Fold:
Amino acid sequence: MTVLVTGAAKRIGRAIALRLHRQGMRVLIHYSTSEAEARRTAEECGNAPVYRANLESVTEIRAMFHEIGRLDGLVNNAARFTKFDVMSIEEADWDYIHSVNLKAVFFCCQSAARMMQPTGRIVNISSLGGIRPWADHAHYCASKAGVIMLTKALAKALAPNITVNSVAPGVIPFSDKEAADPRVASMIRRTPMGRAGHADEIAEAVLFFLTAPDFITGQVMAVDGGLNLA
Ligand SMILES: NC(=O)c1ccc[n+]([C@@H]2O[C@H](COP(=O)([O-])OP(=O)(O)OC[C@H]3O[C@@H](n4cnc5c(N)ncnc54)[C@H](OP(=O)(O)O)[C@@H]3O)[C@@H](O)[C@H]2O)c1
Structure:
């Protein structure tokens, strides 16, 4: 199974790529600016092919998929995250998030679906922020709620050949500094499982959807230690 992981150079995307490689899948590594990290991840994934594209551009998205040529799976992981008071956000701030978090996810799904013959698997990484509202991240929450609805609409549109599911991570910090941010620390305190999550736990959920029966489609799995219930 050949699977493209977007934003696979670092952090959650890297963990997903490494996990899929360990599972015996042929992984394709996408990056935008983190070339050195992408090449390192690719090396650890058995010298996986590496593709660069700025996902803000539909032209670059289509060129990347044209170069790839054939695909069984797609993991839309690349995204942006910013914080803005709702009253100060400008059009460019809105577009900065939505161009990558939502528009690119749609056009990556469309390009991948055209290449998935006879069947395919798509996993979109959304967020707890697409399920629960965060006041200082309204634009981001809207983009991720969009990813969740896109997942459901595409699951219908692309059935019966392709499944489309979503993994919604909770708090996944990558350093003590990130975990110590007051907002993050408060979320960790409120998490029923009493801790932050690990990138490997997101990767397990992605692997599940990539290998699940095709009767499972249009679903959202929160991997958040129960925080969406709190
Ligand atoms: N970490 C968390 O706590 C958390 C919580 C909820 C949801 N999530 C979601 O989980 C996913 C991964 O999270 P993360 O924290 O690992 O993400 P991240 O490090 O913030 O971003 C992942 C990658 O997205 C790529 N990217 C950003 N803008 C791009 C563009 N214009 N074109 C192409 N690629 C672009 C970057 O690639 P380059 O570095 O190569 O430029 C980056 O390495 C995201 O969808 C995120 O929203 C994360």
User: Anything to note?
Assistant: The mean pLDDT is 98. The pocket of NAP is lined by residues 7, 9-13, 31-34, 54-56, 77-81, 100, 125, 127-128, 169, 171-172 (CB under 6 Å). Residues 201 and 223 are 7 Å apart (CA to CA).
